[in-house]
Amino acid sequence: MAFDDPLDRPRAAGGRAPDVFRRGGWVPMREYRDSEPVDFVIVGTGAGAGTLACRLAEQGFSVVALDAGAYFRPLEDFASDESEQTKLYWTDDRIVDGDNPLQMGSNNSGKAVGGSTVHFAMVSLRFRPEWFKSRTLLGYGADWPIDWREMWHYYAEVEDALKISGPVTYPWGTKRPRYPYRAHPLNAAARVLAKGCEAMGISWTETPLATLSAPRGLAHPCVYRGFCVTGCSTNAKQSVLVTWLPRALASGAEVRDLAMVGRIDTGSDGLATGVHYHRAGQWRFQRARNVVVAGYAIETPRLLLNSANDQFPDGIANSSGLVGKNLMVQSNQAVWGTMEDEVRSYKGPPSLAITEHWNYDDDKDFFGGYAYMSQGPLPQLWANTQLGAHGLWGEQLMTAMKDYNHVAGLKIVGETMPQERNCVTLADEVDQYGLRIPRITFSLCDNDKKLIDHSLSFMGQALSAAGARNIWAQEDDTCHLNGTARMGDDPRRSVVDADCRSWDIPNLWICDGSVFPTVGGVNPSLTIQAIACRTADRIHQMARRGELERLPAARPRRVLTPSA
Amino acid sequence: MRDPTRHKPADRYPGYDVLSKRNGPSWNDKTRRVVDQRLSIDDEPRFFAADEFALVQAVAALIAPQPAHRPMIPVAGLVDAKLHRGESDGFRAPNMPRERDAWTRGLAAIEAEARRAHGRGFCELTKSEQIDLLEKMQNGELHDAAWGEMPPQAFWKHRLSHDIVMAYYAHPTAWSEIGWGGPASPRGYVRLDFNDRDSWEAAEAGSSDGDNVRRINRGIR
Q: What domains sit in chain A, N to C, each tagged with a CATH number?
């Protein structure tokens, strides 16, 4: 085959990994033997895993990161095509049930080196400080065991690592530093949001985005092609694939693509000994002194539950019984309308303008908050929205689709409450690896529904005030996945501690959106990366004090200064 | 304010063909390969049996009726190709079979419902009888044993209508029809504001481009 297919054969092998910045290019990669216990084997390479792999490798630890997905070079592998780019989504078989069964795949699950950040919408927001103590300060959910001021430090680190483009001053909440790169210009869809906010008397701003507004190294600024959620083919998007992972490789980490982890083993001492993974047609076992699980809020609990053994019959790290529980999505409802003007919202990142007004205003009859943003759906997504959420088909659908270039929409990222009944369990059926597939159960609670009603009513007024006509509400969508292995300060009521370390198995760590006790009303990727940076620093400190199992106190060997 | 949906001609982007940009700076090599491959798919089944395929064609003509002024999109062929490749959405309700089995069972059930209600196959029904049957499916008013555990409305929502509409809007002819810019790497766009059209974007009939619309659209590269 003249053209090597990254979905067919592992690319990261033979001492080299793909150079994501050059067509057909390679960078050197250190490799470890399966039999050689590495300091950290990490399951996943997404926002949590890739960030942690980078920071641990830079501290001098030996790191192997395994991902079930392919190792793409965006410049040569990504088409400007919605159908083709479904190759970025996790589309392995999953069962969904509950009162509000979740749609998986495109909107919330990535299967690629770099994880879901390869197709995320790049919206990079900080939590509201009070959310880290939402139980104590706001009366709902659960407190995080981390102080917001510490998180503010790590948010700044991640914003700089990704050269986030954003406004000079942010309208809401505690003072934050200026964003590293300037904000992107507004497209017409964003101007609709701005007009609506101004008519309603609330603030709006340019959305802080992880896509370049100025050159950076070998990456060019964003060209506003608008295919962000199907993968950026010009490398403007600051995904984990093109930010943390090149740094990780340069510091000696190994990345294994097309490597599906099926099981974690524990020894007679109750500590984790390594992971079984499937790659290139066979099952292998990587030995490790520490295991980090970072497969996002479905695959993480699935792996912990699938790793049940005689010593841990209910799944590992599960003495609290909370592995898989408290699954939280974010509500993702929208209002849509048509403008007399041409909008052509397909140009530019889909969410160039945002208001977080209802995240910071507590004069509401429900708990939690929401942000809403401008939208830019591509044709397949838009047609599917008109069909699935608006119920149009036949001539009605074809007529409505002709107004594509006049459509404007506002969509929320809304907080849902943690509920133990929303959970990931194992179904009896198995996947292509012979592993039991996840069953994902989700139901909205009354508070979630009140929040959604509030948002649809408010956004409908805002969209109308901006001049849109034929306004209708999309009532069924969700995005993001969090919870299922929450952190806390009580081993009976949480799965990991503030350092993402399992209460039960001290050399097992969970570092992704699973650890969120609450989800807030903002996209989670920045917070996941900030948590990973904090975890890396905590591991560094504990290693120096000799507090890590199986790691001699002499580690780490060296500390590199991250390059810009 | 003028209602933007009123007084618009059937062909909103006359003369626009997104494929005229194929060899320009808006299409990278990977996009050319992917779209070329899709355009080579014809209305011949590889997954469906011949009678199943005819049924998919009949249903597709109702769910995504095609305009007379543009070439026909082989919707059934595109649905068939996706099933032949074995692609999945990645989630399903507990009582829904996986993609291929759902389609096979659903088509058999549609045929059984047509014969039960009218004594004829779906393709032999009048258009209004066909639409009536699809509406009953959407509303969960069909109960033939051929459905098995699969709820008719779930088949409608997650397979039949979904897969047909996604196939239709995967095709460049549909992109041209709605005036979408299409593939855009690496050139992207420059003009982002209201009524702000890059010279490589489709001009709309009735816009300020006036009588030049067809000429503009034919010149797009």
A: 32-544 (3.50.50.60)
